[in-house]
Design goal:
By secondary structure, the protein is an all-alpha fold. It is built from 9 helices and 2 strands; from the N terminus they run αααααβααβαα. α4 packs parallel to α6 and α6 runs antiparallel to α7.
Length: 268
């Protein structure tokens, strides 16, 4: 009788050994991009621990490091063709910790806890807005225009909070803020959270191709920006993200006006 036709006959050792590596490969995960994503999660956790210990500058820097790693993990996955559903879910969970919970807890422990219930509610609103922003982004990933984001991205929103913390601490003004300063931080927290769940349009910069040639002046501009950032990192980073946050309303208005003109254009 042919062994392949008899269900009671067990396959040989060689056949079982051939199947096992394929099964293991299917159940595994890609190491390289997930290492960067783990770095994002670690940086967010470090920011929380540093804030608990009162090291607010370290906490702010940790969130910015998480932003850099978050930019790299997706690009590494695309360059090495190691994208996966597991990696996408892991990235979203890490983003929620590093750009939702961590900034909210940092500003709460820094200033908002002095405002009582108003303080923790504002921090919770920011964390919730980050979760909603990520959920909306994931659910519309297949139908949205890759060139634009709907709502302020959570890393940029987190940068507004921790950038403010870094600048004020760097200037040594934290002790002088008082209740007025705490209220200002609360307003920034609420506005940053609201921007994430808004319908404002922001450039995603995902259509930039770094493999193509660029004008020489563009290279000089990049070098100039890096030099300015090196002179005073906290102020320059905060200024850059403030400009990006303000670009959303302007870009939304421009796109709305273009859409309105097209609607009014006479049809042939």
């Amino acid at each position: 009788m042919n062994p392949d036709e008899d269900p009671d006959i067990i396959r040989g050792e060689d056949e079982l050994d051939d199947d096992r590596p394929r099964s293991r490969r299917r159940r595994g995960v890609f190491l390289l991009p997930n290492l960067f994503t783990t770095g994002v999660l670690f940086s967010g956790f470090l920011a929380i621990v540093s804030a608990i210990d009162g090291e607010f500058i370290t906490a702010a820097i940790a969130v910015f490091v998480a932003m850099v790693l978050d930019t790299l993990d997706g690009r590494v996955a695309r360059m090495t063709d190691t994208q996966s559903e597991f990696g996408a879910q892991f990235d979203s969970l890490s983003d929620l910790v590093s750009f939702g919970l961590a900034p909210a807890l940092v500003v709460y422990l820094w200033q908002l806890q002095d405002l009582g219930n108003f303080g923790w509610v504002a921090a919770f609103f920011f964390a919730t807005a980050a979760a909603l922003r990520l959920a909306r982004f994931n659910s519309r990933l297949a139908v949205t225009d890759k060139r634009f984001f709907q709502g302020l991205p959570s890393p940029a929103s987190a940068a507004l909070l921790v950038g403010t913390v870094w600048v004020v601490e760097d200037l040594g003004l934290a002790a002088e803020l008082g209740d007025t300063g705490a209220v200002a931080v609360l307003i920034i927290t609420v506005l940053a959270g609201a921007a994430m769940v808004s319908n404002l349009t922001y450039f995603s910069f995902k259509d930039m191709d770094f493999r193509h040639r660029v004008p020489f002046l563009a290279m000089l501009g990049v070098v100039g920006a890096l030099m300015l950032a090196a002179l005073d990192p906290p102020k320059m980073l905060l200024a850059g993200f403030v400009v990006y946050a303000l670009s959303g309303p302007l870009l939304t208005l421009v796109r709305w006006q273009r859409h309105r003109r097209r609607g009014r254009a006479p049809q042939a």
